[in-house]
Amino acid sequence: MNKRKDLLDLTRRDFLYLSGVGADSLALAGVPELGNAQEKRPKYGGHLRYAARWVGSGLDVHKNQEFADYINYCFMYGALTEQGPVPDVYIYPMLAKSWEISKDGREYTFALREGVKFHHGKELDSGDVKYSLDRVMNPATRAPRAFSFKG
Fold first, then answer.
1. For residue 5, what pLDDT is reported?
2. What is the per-residue pLDDT across 80-115, written as a single tens digit (0 to 9) for each?
3. pLDDT band for position 122 (cuts 50, 70, 90)
4. CA torsion, points 101, 107, 111, 113, in degrees to nearest 10?
5. Chain centre to alpha carbon of residue 13
6. How many CB atoms within 10 Å of residue 68?
7. What is the pLDDT of residues 26-43, one digit of tens each?
8. Which of 88, 59, 93 is closest to 74 using CA atoms?
9. What is the pLDDT of residue 55?
10. Is there a contact between 112 and 97 (Cβ–Cβ < 8 Å)?
11. Which residues is 83 bridged to in the sheet?
12. What is the set of domains in the chain, with CATH numbers?
């Protein structure tokens, strides 16, 4: 089969996926010494600057829900789980290493990864996860996605 025919057989989804992979590869090609980025002792202070096409509305993950905010959050926050690529959407562990769901589907038990630390050195524990969920549910936070936890 000639190559021109193969390119024409791409679906729109395949084209967008391959375009994204290509763009990511080009972006990473410009990052020098990726393997040497992590030092044995963390360096504190300084500034991190990056260019962005869209400006976010803030850094509060519970209040700001725009796409530009989501991009910023990906650099700073982690979730218990993350969604895999479409079209076969699976849920993968991120801060949780595993989880169990009760038979009635109303209770989720997460086992957290060890060694996950905040920027100030404190290790992640279940109290931190509870704090985040309580904050989302607190009406004073005015979290736009609080409704998704009410069920």
1. 46
2. 998 888 887 899 999 999 999 999 998 999 999 999
3. very high
4. 100
5. 22
6. 14
7. 555 555 555 555 667 767
8. 59
9. 77
10. yes
11. 91
12. 45-77 (no CATH), 79-151 (3.90.76.10)
Query: What pTM value is reported for the model?
Result: 0.60
Contacts of 112 (CB under 8 A, 6+ apart): 95, 96, 97, 124, 125, 126, 129
Q: Which residue, among 37, 69, 72, 151, has the nearest Cα to 105 in the 3D structure? A: 151
Closest CA to 12 of 68, 84, 86: 86
d(CA 151, CA 141) in angstroms, rounded, equals 18
Name the residue with tokens 């700001």: 64
Query: No. of H helices and E strands in the chain?
Result: 4, 4
Strands (E) located in the chain: 81-83, 91-93, 96-101, 108-112
